Amino acid sequence: MIVPEPPERFFLEFLPAVVAELGSAGGPAAGGGGAGQPGRRRGVPSSAGVGVRVVGVGEWVLRFSEGALRASAGIGDDVALQISLRAADFTPLVVEPVRRALAARPSSAEGSELLARSLSARLGRFDEETVELLRQQQGSILVRIEDAGVSRNVALTPGRLPYSLESAECTIDCPLPALLELQEKRKSPLDLFYEGRIRIGGDAQIALALAGLFL
């Protein structure tokens, strides 16, 4: 499976196709019982989407509806969360990890299914209760990923709060290899924190409220 580098094709074509492929193979509907955190029953799935902004390129909203991932251009007022990053950071932080994840599986179909299940689990966490808690947050997170002397920043911003790729109420610093270990489930956030490879600054309560949706 080819992972496109242009963000527009990645969000509007590639991700919906991967999830649709899982559904056509008889996989479980997105946001099912296994998607939530252990010990918590998920409530009614929310129609609120996750806004993704690639600065200087475009904005998109991702939503799950009836087991399908739907992507559309623009970020509306009803989003639960915004994820923002610079265009130069999109390929190293998004495209390349997806390519590695797909290449690591014995077959293209198995890699696509794993990716689809991971995506479904994360976006499936957005029930009405979670969305309301997110919108009550008044602070954002700035994740600063060190990559061979380059800082690749990602902003996690609740609701429609203004985003910034320069500062936030909470900062998380980590090297790119540590982030990859986290994405590939080789290490937990707690492992990396105790190893000193993840550093949290500012209001750590915001990190607990937002970062848990993705880690």
Summed up, the domain count is 1
Structural class: alpha+beta
Number of strands: 8
Q: First CA to last CA: what distance?
A: 25 Å
Unreliable spans are 25-41
* Number of continuous helical runs: 7
**Neighbour order of strands in the largest sheet:** 3-2-1-4-6-5-7-8
What general form does the structure show?
A: globular
Task: Write down the Rg.
Answer: 16 Å
Helix/strand order, N-terminal first? HEEEEHHHEEEHHEH
Percent strand: 15-25%
Mean pLDDT: 81
**Major sheet attributes:** 8 strands, mixed
Helix content: 25-40%
Overview of this protein structure:
The structure is a single chain. By secondary structure, the protein is of the alpha+beta class. It has one domain (7-29, 45-213). It has helices at 7-24, 87-103, 108-123, 128-136, 176-183, 189-194, 204-210, and strands spanning 50-55, 58-65, 68-73, 81-86, 141-147, 150-158, 170-175, 199-202. It has an 8-stranded mixed β-sheet with strand order 3-2-1-4-6-5-7-8. Helix 2 (87-103) crosses helix 3 (108-123). The radius of gyration is 16 Å and the shape is globular. Mean pLDDT is 81; it is low at 25-41.
